[in-house]
Amino acid sequence: MFDKEKVGYSFPAFTITIERGKIHELALAIGDENPIYHDLEAAKAAGYDDLPLPPTAPTIFTFWGNTQLWEQLSSVGINVARVLHGEEEYEYVAPIAANDTLTGVTTIVDGKTRRTREGSMDILTTETRYTNQHQQHVLSAKTMFIVRE
After folding, report:
1. pTM higher than 0.90, yes or no?
2. Is 8 exposed, middle or buried (0-12, 13-18, 19+ CB in 10 A)?
3. Residue ranges per domain, the chain?
4. Any residues with CB less than 8 A from the CB of 40 and at least 6 apart, and which?
5. CB count, 10 Å around CB of 129?
6. Mind listing the pLDDT tens digit for each residue in 22-54?
7. Could you tell me which InterPro entries the record lists for this protein (predicted)?
8. CATH topology of domain 4-19+52-148
9. CA 70, CA 81: separation in Å to the nearest integer?
10. Which end is more exposed in the chain, N or C (fewer Cβ atoms within 10 Å of the end residue's Cβ)?
11. What per-residue confidence (pLDDT) applies to 34?
């Protein structure tokens, strides 16, 4: 059963630098051939300072940037062996491009327990607020985790 006292708890900050090659690789992996993700000149011609971030890229920040996420969730009583990914939501506040360094702080913003036919499940929502190297808020990412009992 989720401990509602954990709502509002923030984990330590983490950083990730957006690398041009990783933007190119991600676009290749998802089949996006838009030249702005592959060629600096094309990105600049489209009005970007550098290769822009593909819209779904923040999913990888959790795994490449916050490598301690599973340990952090465990530390507040979440059984990470029973976690299912529920949903992901992004709010872009400012442009993010190659060579930006982002700092993320993840906070538990909601948690509840739901009864099921087999017992119960916890539904946990976190929000990660990202700022860039200029301390400008650029992105908020919400993630819902379902913890099967």
Report:
1. no
2. exposed
3. 4-19+52-148
4. 20, 50, 51
5. 18
6. 999 999 999 999 999 999 999 999 999 999 999
7. FAS1-like_DH_region, HadA-like, HotDog_dom_sf
8. Thiol Ester Dehydrase; Chain A (3.10.129)
9. 9
10. N
11. 97
